[in-house]
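Hi,

Apologies if this is the wrong queue. I'm a grad student, and the batch job for Oligopeptidase F from Deinococcus aerolatus produced an output file that my downstream script rejects. I'm not sure whether the problem is my script or the file. Here is the sequence I used:
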Amino acid sequence: MTTVHSAGPPRSLPTRADVPREQTWDIEALFATPEAWEAEAEALPGAIDALAAYAGGLTSPEALLAYLQAADNVELRLARFFSYASMSASVDGHDAVAAARRDRASSIAARYGSVSAFFRPELLAQDEGTVNEWLQRPDFADQRVRLQRILRNRPHVRSAEVEELLGAVASPFASERGIHPALANMDLRFGTAGGVKVTQGNVDSLVSGPDREVRREAWENYVDAHLAARHSQAAMYVTNVRQSVFLARARHYPDAITASLAPDRIPTEVVTTLLSTYRANTPIWHRYWRVRRDWLGLKELREYDVKASLVPPRKVEYAQAVDWIAAGMAPLGEEYVRDLRFGLTEDRWTDYAENDGKRQGAYSNGGGRVKPFIFMTWNGTLGSYSTLAHEIGHSMHSLLSMREHPYSVPRYTLFHAEVASNFNQAMVRKHLLEQARAAGDTQLEVAIIEEALGNFHRYFFIMPTLAAFELECYRRIEAGGTLSAPDLNELTADLLSQGYGDGVTMDRERSGILWAQFSTHLYANFYAYQYATGISAAHQLLEQFGQDEAAARENYLRFLKSGGSLDPIDALKQAGVDMLSPEPVEATFRTLAGYVDRLEELLGKV
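Support response: The file is valid. Your script probably expects a header line. Output copied below for reference.
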């Protein structure tokens, strides 16, 4: 049956100036006015250049400590300065002033990298035993962790001249990771679906709606816009890969993945174990696609059906989501919930308004130790609630670790971060499922399971696929090969086919451009896999709450408060999760299988 849509102009989105203040973040906490930011833009270069006076003089513990404290002050100012610029650009891609501000911030940050390049080689030129003696002094307590990490990476720090050069190329080497998102968020046009303009902010809600024709139209138009720009996007991504390979070789790493993981002591086996375990468990995904096809009553499941609602969507207001999250996180204690609720309501951590020009996706920004900030677009679905639960996990991680440690203690890594965000989603989901089953609300139970499976689809299907894609791209370039848009599209389609099995009928040409839709992930080299490891560690941590809640709470809060003071593998091991084993990934697949089992049980009861 063909659905006929009424003609009419696409729904227009409000401009940034028209959205309610309470739906925006408190960016003024960073700089009260743009003029205040401009004043800092004038002052920072001088503060950065003043650090050059320390070069050649780090020959005593007093001199080293003085430099570190001065550099910390500059870095913290840079964090706030850059946060303001990048946050302003995120909320309105049409704002040329904000874009220029972001570029200016990037240049000043690169200046800091160049000026401070002397530090590592000069520190490492000192006798290691002497430096270790300095580190035992009480006044080095807050500097000890990061200095020890520099010392252990001694083989990969180059001479002062080379380090200065590598610092200077940081900004030009980051150009394509700024161009690609600009292309996707500002220049690509995605047409309409069902009379609604397709945007980065609403495409997910359109492809999860009940009208199959609208889903198809939204998915195809969105994908086709990326396909039309595939050659330029491929050129940018491959340039990024080549640059990363160059930097890895410049620092004497055997390959780019080792260069990315080694500084945080993450063995490459963590990635390869994840991918092999994922491939071994793809039949669970194949079964889910078949169950989904049966729920929707379709002869074949197409890619624009994988997010379609199985039950009528639940409208969720922002305030309701905050209540759900607060109730779900109650096992972590009153203080955690009080801080969470204050940030999400009174203190304006979250920018959730939908407006024209707002970039896609969601993120949490540590806010330069002023306050955490959350970026997202609220579309009133369970998916929005889930995104908020995810991002507040990051923000609470930032808040608790910031309270526990001074700025000189390293911030937690991306590997740490994705555990905290996924844990919040898992814990709140468990609470909501228990409430729905107790109330006999089958539709709500199915909707929550569907939200869970949508979350797993992103973090436990798409992200392992992108991780495998990324690893193969780097291997080909490192072996002296070449990559073009057809190569990237074919590789992506092959990897997706492994996950779809016989459950999804693919459109290979359109499937293959998936990689281009994740520029914010692929340009953060070897980042995508950390979503899958994060969701795995999170579910194993959650299991502990069913055994001894008090001990589990203490374990988990200790993990959050540790921030970056421990390497991620060590921090998780201390919390009872061994990421060198396939067990966390296998345990999470068992959770996924349990959701599919329950959907099969409920099939026909709704």
